[in-house]
User: Fold this.
Amino acid sequence: MYPHFRKTVKTADGEKLIDFTPTFYGNELHYSIKIEHVDQFRMAKDEEGMWRIGAQVLPLWVHEIDLELHDIIEDNYNNRITPEALIERGFILQENPKKYYRFDTPTYTIAIAFTENHWLHYIKPWEQTPIAILYTMDDVERIISNAP
Assistant:
């Protein structure tokens, strides 16, 4: 699972909110990247395993943050939420009525489910509205540590 995620990056042009959306071309993972006030572009791994911006006409500052974008993608991948990471953290898989992961604190139940391309946090399993979109296990840890 490679969910969509966002990150704010400082650039020569100021802070920019960047959307990273995984896409596959055949079996090859790419990221479509959308930066506010800039057209969308793609990044793919080169022969050395580095995420690089493909040949496209973009503002110079976008190319200047190429390595930072690589680091963001790698950090997100290495810290991504997976069923295995949730179970290792103490979540229990529940499958009634839908599949979700449950973590009980003395006063609070945390429910996390993967729907479409996001991990979503619910106070109780399958409420109508999720509380938040989660991107990494750091987000999960924040929820656990802030539980009442």
About this structure: Residues 5-78 form one domain. The CA atoms of residues 51 and 71 lie 8 Å apart. Helices lie at 60-64, 66-78, 83-89, 137-145. The chain has two domains: 5-78, 83-145.
